[in-house]
Design goal:
about 300 residues, six-stranded mixed beta sheet, alpha/beta, 10 helices, Rossmann fold, globular
């Protein structure tokens, strides 16, 4: 039996963002995933191994290395590999390009929440962070909010300018506070450990999407932002005790556990009123890699 390797360009040509978010939603109606995560650290570098098994969907194992210093040497910050296994007999079904799975899983995770929590008439979308994920967020959000105007803010303006050249129509914000206040949706993907986005900047009706923090010491918003928001996460098991965005304020007693309204295993609870500020923490997880890999393989087989 030939095991397919699905490369980035050929695989991506078959995918669409709305189809992926529908597949992620469907995956959360299956039995809850068994997941196992292992984190190893060396200063700012991280080795992350994630495995998931969903009855009816199969198994996936993904190993990622995250080296924040790599871009300064023209190397990708994140590297790794993904193996997809059959549910029935555990045989290897496909090897999928790591960056393809990561790109679509990460931005698709956030887009699923935004399709349910952001106002459908959102017209101003701010991307905080002009890295690889920021570009993916532009692509994903453009699919669900085709009439929106996009703005990017980045600490280093030159990086924002480079992103704007890659994404026609993207504007550059000079001041983060002003850009946040003007936005209907704020989607943030930075490597910050100290909060960048302040609660005092937020206004009723906004949706805040947080992606960057993935370690226990990392945060992108301050306590005031959490206290003003209705908070949602993709998975309680992979966020509450692991990611500083919610772990730190929970342990400090700044927010209570019931402040976090739901995860994707209760999608019917992902609702808003017009004046709510909704805040979603994208924590990722191997179960989402599995759902995304399965979606990619299904599209590959039917192409």
């Amino acid at each position: 039996m030939n095991i397919p390797f699905i490369p980035f360009a050929e695989g991506e040509a078959l995918l669409d963002w709305i189809g992926l978010t529908d597949a992620l939603a469907a995956g959360h109606h299956l039995p809850k995933a068994e997941i196992g995560d292992t984190f190893l650290y060396r200063d700012s570098d991280t080795l992350l191994s994630r495995a998931a098994w969903i009855n009816g969907l199969g198994m996936a194992v993904k190993t990622a290395t995250i080296f924040p210093g790599n871009p300064s040497s023209d190397k990708p910050m994140v590297n790794g590999g993904v193996n997809l296994y059959a549910d029935g007999d555990g045989t290897l079904e496909a090897i999928v390009d790591f960056h393809l799975v990561t790109k679509w899983k990460t931005a698709g995770d956030s887009l699923l929440a935004a399709r349910r929590l952001a106002r459908p008439d959102s017209r101003n979308i701010l991307i905080v962070g002009a890295g690889t994920v920021g570009r993916s967020l532009f692509d994903a959000y453009s699919a669900a909010f085709p009439q929106a105007q996009f703005t990017v803010w980045n600490r280093t303006r030159a990086n924002a300018e480079a992103m704007a050249k890659d994404r026609p129509g993207l504007e550059i914000a000079d001041t983060l506070a002003d850009a946040v206040q003007a936005a209907d949706i704020v989607t943030s993907a930075t490597m910050s450990t100290d909060p960048l986005i302040k609660g005092e900047w937020l206004r009723p009706g906004q949706h805040i999407d947080l992606i960057g923090a993935y370690r226990p010491d990392m945060r992108e918003v301050d306590d005031a932002a959490l206290l003003k928001s209705r908070i949602f996460v993709d998975n309680f098991d992979t966020t509450l005790g692991h990611i500083g965005e919610v772990k730190i304020p929970l342990e400090a007693g700044t927010i209570k556990r019931d402040a976090i309204k739901a995860d994707y295993y209760d999608l019917s609870a992902f609702t808003r009123t017009a004046d709510d500020i909704t805040l979603f923490k994208n924590g990722g997880g191997a179960h989402l890699d599995l759902m995304t890999s399965r979606y990619i393989l299904d599209r590959w087989r039917t192409s």
